[in-house]
Batch of 4 targets.
Target 1
Amino acid sequence: EVHLVESGGGLVEPGGSLRLSCAASGFTFALSPMSWVRQAPGKEIEWVAYINSYGVTEYRDFVKGRFTISRDNAKNTLTLQMNSLKLEDTAVYYCSQGSVRGQGTRVTVSS
């Protein structure tokens, strides 16, 4: 059974940084493409960043240059480094393997 546990969210001022982590288990992590998605208050879920099993990454335009997705296959961990955070980055962030998501971690960007 796929199990994903996100952590690292919190309250940060605009321009600040956060590092999200996702601990994965129940599947062969090293072979799985992974994503970060988010859901802002009152909005639909949107994907943010993607990394395949070879480490090739893709980003939505609104986070390019600010967010970095990475993976540590030895530790079955997915990471999202978020820099230069904006108010509109406020959301619950989920790591995703296919259609499965974790419980999410809340990121609030506020002054």
Target 2
Amino acid sequence: EVQLVESGGDLVQPGGSLRLSCATSGFTFRTSGMNWARQAPGKGLEWVSSVYTDDSTYYADSVKGRFTVSRDNAKNTVYLQMNSLKLDDTAVYYCASVAGYWGQGTQVTVSS
């Protein structure tokens, strides 16, 4: 059974930091590109970042320079380090494999 379980979401003040984790099982993680996406209240799904098997990384313009994606193949886990958080970063964050497996999401709320 494929599982992707996000964690690390929290309430944080503007300018703060969070690290999201996505622990996976049930598929060959080391050969899978991984994505992070988010959905803000009342808005559609937005791609945030990707990390591929060669460790190449890509970011949406809205998070470039503030977010860092990484992966640990030994732990079958992908991370999203989020710094300098803004109010507009408030959303449910999802991880997903390029094959189309999705986690259940973790809530990030940026508020003063």
Target 3
Amino acid sequence: VQLQASGGGLVQAGGSLRLSCAASGRAFSNSAVGWFRQAPGKEREFVALINSYGGSTTYAESVKGRFTISRDNAKNTVSLQMNSLKPEDTAVYYCRAYMYNAWGQGTQVTVSS
């Protein structure tokens, strides 16, 4: 499966963005999907996870209450709605399909203060 992440951009603090991870090659409805991020000079860190059919989600403490992960298996996509963005959310965001150990190419999110 190939993953394509999109939706990043430049936003002011307090603003919102919606990231999308689209799968091609095969359906990934049976795979848990996660979002990770990597800021300059830092290690890649976990952001959010959704299980294969969307019944369970997990979030990093730093984004809990601000970010929402969801999926549409009919469209083969997983989304990350990011609200109340902070400058410390600035990073390249990656999606991952666990079953296939596949990663998207990353999308840049920049939050200005």
Target 4
Amino acid sequence: VHFVESGGGLVKPGGSLRLSCAASGFAFSRYDMRWHRQAPGKGREMVATITSAGGDTWYVDSVKGRFTISTDNAKNTVYLQMNNLKPEDTAVYYCSAAGIIYWGQGTQVTVSS
């Protein structure tokens, strides 16, 4: 199993970023996928999920209406579109597959003026 997250960076409040996570080593299209984040000094938090079957999504309250999770099964990739970013979104972002205990290196998102 391998996850490679990318797309992070430094952005001003109100800005946008699109994170990507390329997955390999398992049947991507059969798994619910998730995005998590870990802010400095805090535990890892799940922020968005998407089901494999129907594409149903879930978001933590703090990102509802701003973040959108999606997948491209042809590319074995899960995305996180993040709009109207806030300083409290600053964290390392990770993807995962439900039931698979493995973490990639993550991608750093910093929201600061």
